[in-house]
Structures
1.
Amino acid sequence: MAYVPRELPPENVNVSPQHPLGEFVWLLGGLIGLLLGSFVLLGFAVDWIVPHVPPTTEQALGQMFTSVYAKEQQGPSRDRLQQLLDRLSARLPDKPVYQLHLVPEDTVNAMALPGGDIVIYTGLLAQAKSENELALVLGHEIAHLHYRHSLRALGRALVLVTLSDLALGPNNGLSGLVYETINGAQMRFSQDQESACDALGLRLLVETYGHAGGATDFFSRLAAAKTLPEHLAYLDSHPHPAARVRQLQQLIAAAGYRQGQLTPMHVD
């Protein structure tokens, strides 16, 4: 006798009329929305907490990044950079003391880490043509520390790791990626923060040398070598170098800063 399946009643509660894939998409979208909302709210909480974190606590957190400058280079070049850093930071009202670490790598980069440490790579030194250019870069990193951007970025990254662990379980890939970002000290600041740091770096440069000479030279060369088109700059963590040059030029013009003679590099 042939099997004839019995027709299910229309009110069967065990069978959903919606396609299973559709339900999955709704659940996934809800989870992503919940995570995003939680991240935004907790991010605001981080921004509120950061100004109340004692400097000693921030310095303790900065010990997480000691591997970044474990191979730092000692010697006259590093000492002269520290002296330049001290001259610039002394222009801030609270006259903070920051520590400079010179790392012998070809990377064209500098970074500010929680606790008052600034790392600069010898690859960046090779690109700088005057002390004024270098002062603008160091002033930019000083601004990150002054505004405590490093600590904010660390707090937001830890929030993201925690949320991803709670939602997806540990070692889900996202947590590992964020952890590597933290451990490698690749702090990504918003473009608004970068612009604010360029502005403060420019002010420190002018107050130290008495003029804005060399302020745009370094970024002008970066713009010429940049492969990412300017209209795709939103994909990057930093404003496009060409945009940074224009902003600096506007700030210089608005403040009436004069140009002056550049100071030769005294760092190898």
2.
Amino acid sequence: MRIVVAIVAIICAACPALAFKAHIISLHARPSNASPSKLLSAPPNPFRAAMPPALPAKDEEDLTSKITTYLNTVDPNSCQTPLNNLKTLLRITVPSVVAAVGAFFAFPYLALSLAAAVNNAGVFAVLSQDSSQFVQNFLTVTGLLFSILVGQTYYFMYQQQEAVYLSLFNEVTEAKSLLEQTTLIAGSRPIYPKILAYINSYINNDLRQLNSPPSRLLARRPDKDPLESIMFVTSVGVPSSLYETVRTLRQARAGRLGSMQRKLPSSHIFLLQILAFIELLSFPLLGAGTQTIGGYNILTVEGYLFAVMTFGIVLTLRTIMELWNMKGAYNVEGVMKVMVSGLEEELKERMDGCRKLPGPDDGKEWYDVE
């Protein structure tokens, strides 16, 4: 016993000495350029674990810039960015998931509350067995009305989306035609820079104003219309040869504004939500009858099904609202940006006098604006 106590005492006495020796060795192993004050001020704790090196600030900035670049990269096929798709998914799925979770936890409470309010064996028998098929007919009628109205609304919204794309392609094509004819007709005239300025104003203040109310854009005074200004500076007494192109461009603009005008009122969306609420309200009523057969366990199973159905209905309504508002992935701003980019680049080059056109037969080149 004395031998064991002696060994323990020797180990306890040797540990501080070994620790101090290791600390001295580590101090001598440090770089020679370290100041003595820093070496002495370091806490003598040789058992402290070394901290992992922090991520350089440059790497963090590079990672952030890569994520930002990826989210704002335009897909060449859909002309949409991942950021717009992400916003649409969040606006659609998050409310749907929240509604589904709330429906799952609220279903047993609603069913038991209705059962406590009714508290009649005959009513429970009818609800649980549905002998009169009244509840089944009620669900059929409400589901049919909701599906018809939702289907027609979605089809109408998608048709409007298609009309917007067709009108945009038509209008941008006519705008390019106007720019080309302006160069051929007025390229050597003093009014050429002014016409290019009017076309630039039309692109920035009219064509690209997708979020402005279409009726307000069309209701502007003629003296504030760039296309009217082009007609004014190019026509002396009689309409110029640009008249037909400007008239066609105005018709294309009218088609674009008409297709982008919101046609369904907000009350239509409100009626859809009322029908969805009526359809969902019938299921807690059925749960009040079935709880007499299976108890709370059957309400839990029905709660799962009720949550899934709530998720689907809210998902459908949110998709229709996204189409109705023309936001996120259903926005045409990305397509417009891609379509107008070539027109804006060509217009800028001509306004700066840097665009070269094929010269005469001798092979020389000449500039639009000297």
